[in-house]
Design a protein that fits this description.
The complex is a heterodimer of chains A (237) and B (599). Chain A has 237 residues and is an alpha/beta fold. Chain A has one domain: Rossmann fold, CATH 3.40.50.1450. Chain A has 10 helices and 9 strands. In chain A, the strands form 3 sheets. A 5-stranded mixed beta sheet of chain A has the order 3-1-4-6-5. Chain A has a two-stranded antiparallel ribbon with strand order 2-7. The longest helix of chain A has 15 residues. Chain B is of the alpha+beta class and 599 residues long. Chain B has a domain of 235 residues: Cytochrome-c3 Hydrogenase, chain B, CATH 1.10.645. Helices cover 36% and strands 13% of the residues of chain B. In chain B, the strands form 6 sheets. In chain B, strands 5-4-3-15 form a 4-stranded antiparallel beta sheet. Chain B has a 3-stranded antiparallel beta sheet with strand order 12-13-14. Chain B has a two-stranded antiparallel ribbon with strand order 1-2. In chain B, α8 packs across α10. The longest helix of chain B is centred in the middle third of the chain and has 33 residues. The chains are: A alpha/beta (237), B alpha+beta (599). Chains A and B meet through β3, α2, α4, α9 and β8 of A and α1, α5 and α6 of B.
Chain lengths: 237, 599
């Protein structure tokens, strides 16, 4: 491929806004959009918990930057960057949330279609709390938003993708998208704990014992361990 | 050991070996299933558990009702739009807001688009692998596959031997690299797979084509909703203005260019469904028509609210283009009307759900609904509170409530809609069903099966594509006649609202009947309750011993290999379960393979 045209960039935030630090990815991309404008072919996308529906956007991208809450096993609020082939391993290696299984698979599908992004960056933050339904980002995680944005902007700048800071940030899109679009409003309007139960199912929240099993398949006499590519990060987990 | 007969006639017997599948994979959300099989490997008892707590309603308390749609569409990873639509209908009902005709046409196109998109993704990417074996596809002869393709769909352009050879090589490369990706973790040596290699290769090829096609169909939501995958909705209409004299720069997202684009995508959608999806379903049906398990409640109790109002603001059955009504006790001669406001019709019970009511012998209508969690396990549970080996279905055993219509457990979804439509003599639906029955040479009773559910979904996608065209033409005609109104903001200001009101909104989500009930007090949400399709289908038992659609559908199915529950997955997947909103989005650990334990 020749690089005479500017690369297509996708900046994607994934996660569920309703689950405390799980909303990090979406809040990050939302903040980026309000504070910066980009030249060139750059798409900012709030991917939410959409799984397979995101494949198309991934396939279109030459450079993919993903913001997400990732369970690295580090202290809460730690920001960590992962690049290239390592990225999918962190999106589904450990329990964080539902969508991550989906997202790893989304990357696999893009690869199968022969349209895998040329370059990948994962800007992940270690969540402090997830089991808080209707909650917002914890202070430690919220405090990492500027650094997370800077990391993504640096990465893109190194690849010739420039962003310009807006003179004043765009207002939150509350009129069109409701209170959920404004983190502060979302927090302030939250029903009190005695009104609305905030916790989840102890069994699910604590479970980490779903065993991954192997099912070798026989393909024309050759035995293939169908998910052996997961081995690398099984160890890591 | 316990044995009993359910009100719908199923003989339950939990004495055989217990098989536990947890989690049930390739669904949205988290679900567990336990069955008992007898000495002949026939399922004699089935228990379905929603394993995640749902807090969908409670987080809305005290919030602005005009924002509710934006919250509810975040609950679920797949059907965002249908929740948003149901929510704005619910608020409009409470506040007596009438929407313009254009808004009705646009909402219908968006809802129908979701139907087609969701059905396609469900069949090809979540369900096909229960029927199709990608590993077997490697053995196919590309030339024979090409002949098969030309026979089943002569109008489909992609059918050359070279094309199939290319796909097969790509698949081979993918498998040889050990990266089966989405095809990993299958039971590919199980005798329950019946397709010849050529049909497998054709279907896998269409798996890829469907993935490719998605990129077109999702543009419709982007144009009408302003963005994707979380389009904007609006109480009072739709948020997209129409301007036929200007370009996008003027801030009007709907103009001649974008409307033409949508029109062209609608044509492509209909082509894809008619030339790929429907022929694939018929091909799968041809090989599996001897496997007619999984009917469950579909031939007994089915429920549909109806959807797609032809004219705006009229939600009476005569104006709804999707079937409305309830059938009970298998009597297809009588379709009962359904009233979502009647406190005695739709009620939720919790004797087997991890919630508490002041009096659990009684059900509660959603307007009086309570969502108060209470997690406790029955005395016959094996394992611990945090690591259950076997659930005790005699006690509370699911995070899903048990909704009932006049006391009956009901199946909802494409098959339920099609059974109601067939019973009602819905012309389009009757013609489709008769065509499929004739093509496959099977009796009407074949409809009440896993295969029937899968076929109904495809037929509905075909219907939905045709109605997209109908509403697009209607929208264009209305605009040409000079009506460019898309929203009614008369009652936007909360100062105009009564002090205390309630409303109900309903739709037919891809997975089935969806209802939202709201109570607004002093301009804020006082109570919000949703009964989502998977709550109906995945319902636990009731105090009469009535079982829900999932449990009923597994009964009396023969399992080839206990440790490889292909048949269980096939039938559960046929409902397109979405536990994310019937319970909530939490807890999947990224290790998606089901642990199957046989005890």
């Amino acid at each position: 491929m020749t690089d005479t045209t500017s690369p297509k960039v996708l900046i994607l935030g994934i996660g569920n806004l309703l689950w405390a630090d799980e909303g990090f990815g979406v809040r990050a991309v939302e903040t980026l959009q309000r504070e910066y404008r980009f030249a060139g072919d750059v798409t900012l996308l709030d991917g939410g918990t959409q799984g397979i529906y995101l494949v198309q956007y991934i396939r279109d991208a030459d450079i993919l930057v993903v913001f997400d809450a990732v369970d690295y096993g580090l202290p809460g609020g730690t920001l960590k960057l992962i690049e290239g082939d390592e990225v999918p391993k962190f999106l589904g290696a450990k329990k964080v949330s539902l969508h991550q299984t989906g997202f790893q698979e989304v990357l696999a599908l893009a690869e199968m279609m022969g349209d895998y992004p040329r370059e990948l960056l994962l800007v992940g933050v270690q969540p402090v709390a997830i089991e808080d339904f209707g909650g917002s980002l914890r202070p430690e995680v919220k405090a990492q938003l500027p650094a997370a944005l800077d990391a993504a902007l640096d990465y893109l700048a190194q690849r010739g993708i420039r962003a310009q800071r807006r003179e004043a940030p765009l207002p939150a899109n509350v009129d069109a998208a409701g209170a959920i679009a404004d983190m502060t409003l979302y927090e302030n309007e939250r029903p009190a704990e005695e009104q609305a139960c905030r916790t989840g199912d102890a069994r699910v929240l604590n479970s980490s014992d779903y065993q991954v099993e192997y099912r070798p398949a026989d393909i024309d006499g050759v035995s293939v361990a169908l998910d052996q590519h997961l081995d690398g990060y099984r160890e890591r987990g | 050991m316990s044995t009993f007969t359910t009100p719908t006639g199923f003989q339950m017997d939990n004495s055989g070996k217990r098989v536990v599948v947890d989690p049930v994979t390739r669904i949205e959300g988290h679900m567990r299933c336990e069955v008992n099989v007898d000495d002949d490997n026939i399922i004699r008892n089935a228990v379905s558990t929603g394993t995640m707590w749902r807090g969908l309603e409670v987080i809305l308390k005290g919030r602005d009702p005009r924002d509710a749609w934006a919250f509810v569409q975040r609950i679920c990873g797949v059907c965002t739009g249908t929740h948003a639509l149901t929510s704005v209908r619910c608020v409009e009902d409470a506040l007596g807001i009438q929407i313009p005709e254009n808004a009705n046409s646009i909402r219908n196109i968006m809802q129908l688009t979701l139907q087609v998109h969701d059905h396609l993704v469900h069949f090809y990417h979540l369900h096909a692998l229960d029927w199709v074996n990608p590993v077997n596809a490697l053995k196919a002869d590309p030339k024979a596959t090409s002949e098969l393709q030309q026979m089943v769909a002569p109008n489909h352009p992609k059918s050359s031997p070279g094309y199939f050879r290319d796909i097969q090589n790509r698949l081979k490369k993918f498998v040889e690299s050990g990266q089966l990706g989405p095809f990993k973790n299958g039971y590919w040596t199980n005798p329950a797979y019946l397709l010849p290699p050529e049909a497998d290769l054709m279907a896998v090829t269409h798996y890829l084509e469907a993935l490719d096609f998605q990129k077109e169909i999702m543009k419709i939501r982007t144009i009408f909703g302003g963005k994707d995958p979380h389009p904007n909705w609006m109480v009072g209409g739709v948020p997209c203005a129409i301007n036929m004299n200007d370009d996008m720069a003027a801030g009007a997202p709907l103009n001649m260019v974008t409307l033409n684009q949508i029109s062209s995508i609608i044509d492509q959608t209909r082509d894809f469904v008619k030339n790929v999806y429907i022929p694939d379903i018929l091909a799968v049906g041809q090989f599996y028509k001897g496997w007619l398990y999984g009917g469950g409640l579909s031939g007994i109790n089915v429920l549909a609210y109806g959807d797609i109002p032809d004219r705006a603001n009229d939600y009476s059955p005569g104006n709804l283009m999707m079937p409305h009504g309830a059938i009970i006790n298998g009597n297809l001669k009588e379709v009962h009307p359904v009233d979502l406001r009647n406190p005695d019709e739709i009620q939720e019970f919790v004797p087997h759900s991890w919630y508490q009511y002041p009096d659990e012998a009684r059900g509660l209508h959603p307007w009086d609904g309570i969502t108060e969690p209470k997690y406790e396990l029955g005395p016959n549970t094996k394992g611990t509170r945090t690591n259950i080996q076997e659930i005790d279905e005699g006690a509370k055993y699911s995070w899903i409530k048990a909704p009932r219509w006049n006391g009956h457990a009901m199946e909802v979804g494409p098959l339920a809609r099609y059974v109601v439509g067939y019973a009602n003599g819905h012309e389009y639906i009757t013609e489709q069903i008769n065509f499929v029955l004739k093509t496959l040479d099977v009796p009407v009773s074949a409809l009440f099966s896993t295969l029937g559910r899968t076929a109904a979904r495809a037929l509905e996608a075909d219907w939905a594509g045709d109605q997209m065209r109908y509403f697009m033409d209607k929208l264009m005609a209305n605009i040409k006649a000079g009506d460019i109104s898309t929203a009614n903001t008369d009652n936007w200001n909360p100062a105009t609202w009564p002090q205390s009101v309630k409303g109900v909104g309903f739709s037919e989500a891809p997975r089935g009947a969806l209802g939202h009930w709201i109570q607004i007090k002093d301009t804020k949400i006082d109570n919000y309750q949703c009964i989502v399709p998977t709550t109906w289908n995945g319902s636990p038992r009731d105090s009469q011993g009535g079982i829900g659609a999932f449990e009923a559908s597994l009964m009396n199915t023969k399992v080839e290999r206990k440790e490889e529950p292909v048949e269980i997955l096939r039938t559960l997947h046929s409902f397109d379960p979405c536990l994310a909103c019937s319970t909530h989005v939490m807890g999947e650990d990224g290790k998606e393979l089901a642990t199957v334990k046989v005890r």
